Amino acid sequence: MPPIHEIVELVALLAIAGAIAGFLAGLFGIGGGAVLVPVFYQAFAMAGVADDIRMKLCVGTSLAIIIPTSLRSFQSHYKRGAVDMTLLRKWIIAVPFGAVASTLVIAYAPGALLRGVFAVLTLLIGLKMLYPKSAEWRLGDDLPENPALFGYGWFIGLLSGLIGIGGGTLNNTFMTLFNRPIHQAVATSAGVGVLISLPSFIGNIVGGWAKPGLPALSTGYVNWVAVALIIPITFAIAPLGVRAAHALTKRQLSFGFGIFLLIISARFFYSFF
């Protein structure tokens, strides 16, 4: 049993992290790792988690939290008939296959590699959000067929698993680039989040099993203190962010989220120096 003061300190830090993540998720309309991973990174650093496993712990814990939120979101969108179930059926192997591959990379790759991938992807997505005409970009009139479609699904699962996100940002970008409406993309992304988070959750527990230096109450690269705290706190605080979001225009929100991602990217790039 770890010392009680270590548990109390971690609980306090993660409670603050959950409040920040909840507000930002409500403000920017996302609930995945784009917000959670950087907040966890700071919280676990303050808790004294070693640099070589900190990013892996952030990614694994983020994906564990995404499971219930993705399932709830998918259920709601499915009832409205907004989910592209044909695409999800075609990706039933491709996306989890990519997610499992990501857990192998996490288990054996240095934490610096994960920080680098996260920094580059948040930089690219942030720049896209800042460009006002990016929503008009197109790669085709409809989704590609296999094997290209399988490859896209595998790649989305791999990248999402590597940086601890539910795949919404990447899948939204993919579907809209192939002329699918944004509302259908958002709804389908909830299902993609389930396909990514479930196998990643299992893989990150196995890959991090009994690793030295993990904080109190962790199983592999999943910290249960964070999971237990973040879900209810983010649900409670997110409406405050939503209220703030409705006071802003769509362009102001896109710009704000883009700036947020660029700041996060810069923070992770700075960690290499």
From TrEMBL:
<feature type="transmembrane region" description="Helical">
    <location>
        <begin position="53"/>
        <end position="71"/>
    </location>
</feature>
<comment type="similarity">
    <text>Belongs to the 4-toluene sulfonate uptake permease (TSUP) (TC 2.A.102) family.</text>
</comment>
<keyword id="KW-0472">Membrane</keyword>
<protein>
    <recommendedName>
        <fullName>Probable membrane transporter protein</fullName>
    </recommendedName>
</protein>
<keyword id="KW-1003">Cell membrane</keyword>
<dbReference type="Pfam" id="PF01925">
    <property type="entry name" value="TauE"/>
</dbReference>
<feature type="transmembrane region" description="Helical">
    <location>
        <begin position="91"/>
        <end position="108"/>
    </location>
</feature>
<dbReference type="GO" id="GO:0005886">
    <property type="term" value="C:plasma membrane"/>
</dbReference>
<feature type="transmembrane region" description="Helical">
    <location>
        <begin position="12"/>
        <end position="41"/>
    </location>
</feature>
<keyword id="KW-1133">Transmembrane helix</keyword>
<keyword id="KW-0812">Transmembrane</keyword>
<feature type="transmembrane region" description="Helical">
    <location>
        <begin position="113"/>
        <end position="131"/>
    </location>
</feature>
<feature type="transmembrane region" description="Helical">
    <location>
        <begin position="253"/>
        <end position="270"/>
    </location>
</feature>
<feature type="transmembrane region" description="Helical">
    <location>
        <begin position="186"/>
        <end position="209"/>
    </location>
</feature>
<feature type="transmembrane region" description="Helical">
    <location>
        <begin position="221"/>
        <end position="241"/>
    </location>
</feature>
<dbReference type="InterPro" id="IPR002781">
    <property type="entry name" value="TM_pro_TauE-like"/>
</dbReference>
<feature type="transmembrane region" description="Helical">
    <location>
        <begin position="151"/>
        <end position="174"/>
    </location>
</feature>
